[in-house]
DNA sequence: TCAAGTTGTCTAGTATCATAGACAACTTGG
DNA sequence: CCAAGTTGTCTATGATACTAGACAACTTGA
């Protein structure tokens, strides 16, 4: 590798190294607790200066993916988040069960208008006022997914502010008196991350993402919210129960 | 945006801008022939210096996606090939209907042996002799896809030579007395182009591809050929009819 | 013809990226 | 304890990324 590669691709060398290592962890070449090769060895395999490797490892360490031990080596901290797809799915519960700390972050909340598709999913009329929430979910400090969520502006007035305060869709619904809800039909597809999501997910450009479309209903079957979520494929593993 | 964003993400700003514009073209926000917003306007929307926008546009121009006209503006060059996925799909017809000239090119023909999966698709026994044809399809002079096609060596003896002469799967089947055929179940996935296909498709490394697996049957439902095709995602758009 | 708007080109300055070398601090295994 | 191997930190240098401003060259529409 060389600066020429960086210039032509627009991706920093240390980022390529970091992504390569993270991919190795995702693929299982390095399991949780494993010792990574030494910095010099990594530098040789990527044909890169040791300082560049250190930059990459620092980025991974900041996200809690690896942990450096002076004099000893650098060790893998995390493993893929097992994400069961049940009708009752709560991000915070899943992450908590994995021994990691769930976080939510509001990216943007804005008013929107129901397209035909959104109206059908939410049981509204096309053109109905909606609130669109762009949010992000993390486990410890690692971004897991970004979601675009739509709710009826009439059923959930001021939902954007509520989410900004609670950072949780479950708590948002509780705020409007909804104690429990269920996930309806879920569509799973895959795609390539775009630049915006890549920056948000701290994901390399061009990496695969898992795209999940789903609508949550209350216990009477009335649609509440519909979501379009993009998961970093290398950090999560969907489990579908039979 | 600022250098701080770049530092944290390891992705150059101009790359984010270029991807954003390319996405706009892919999404149809900018159609072929359309004039893009001025460099200053793009710079404002991305909160970036005009020179950074010019870097992004230069990268897109080098790939033939946009074309700058001094004093006038920057225009979208490319147009995606609309590719309807019907049970009766002929590449030449689709390309011709788009007003472009279809071409076929034989890359390689070789003998092969049926794996379990291939045997199941073709209704043969595992280990049965096959002919494997690696071919490429173009519209005008733009590569659209590369396909690996398997046929029974017993049903279609010398198929490689026939394809080399006709450069068309339809004509190949005609040569063996098959006047019409239908496409069976089609699986569509996405992935990243590998180095070999990238060179063939004249595609940059790391670009997305649409992977299509399908088996063609004769009118009695007997499997004829099974294909594994890789389309340059940025040059084609599949249309699935409901 | 002319003014406004567009892309093309130049200079300059600051911050980051990447490389290079040296040495300190620490852990591990013999 | 000691040698080998590891990560941590420092200085230094050159290339690249991004911003900033100015002006030239060109197109378009009034």
Structure overview:
The structure is a homodimer of 242-residue chains. Chain A is 32% helix and 33% strand. Chain A has helices spanning 3-9, 13-27, 39-45, 50-62, 91-97, 116-122, 159-166, 169-175, 195-201, and strands at residues 66-69, 73-76, 81-84, 102-113, 129-139, 142-152, 182-192, 208-217, 223-232, 236-239. The radius of gyration of chain A is 20 Å and the shape is elongated. The first copy, chain A, has a 6-stranded antiparallel sheet. In chain A, helix 2 crosses helix 4 (50-62). By secondary structure, the first copy, chain A, is of the alpha+beta class. Chain A has 2 domains: 3-76, Orthogonal Bundle (Arc Repressor Mutant, subunit A), CATH 1.10.10.10; 81-239, Chorismate lyase-like (Chorismate lyase). The interface between A and B is medium-sized, with 20 and 21 residues. The structure holds a DNA duplex (30 and 30 nucleotides).
What does the secondary structure layout of this molecule look like, with pairings?
The structure is a homodimer of 242-residue chains.
Chain A: H1 3-9, H2 13-27, H3 39-45, H4 50-62, E1 66-69, E2 73-76, E3 81-84, H5 91-97, E4 102-113, H6 116-122, E5 129-139, E6 142-152, H7 159-166, H8 169-175, E7 182-192, H9 195-201, E8 208-217, E9 223-232, E10 236-239
Parallel strand pairs in A: 3-10
Antiparallel strand pairs in A: 1-2, 4-5, 5-6, 6-9, 7-8, 8-9
Helix pairs in contact in A: 2-4, 3-4, 7-8
The structure holds a DNA duplex (30 and 30 nucleotides).
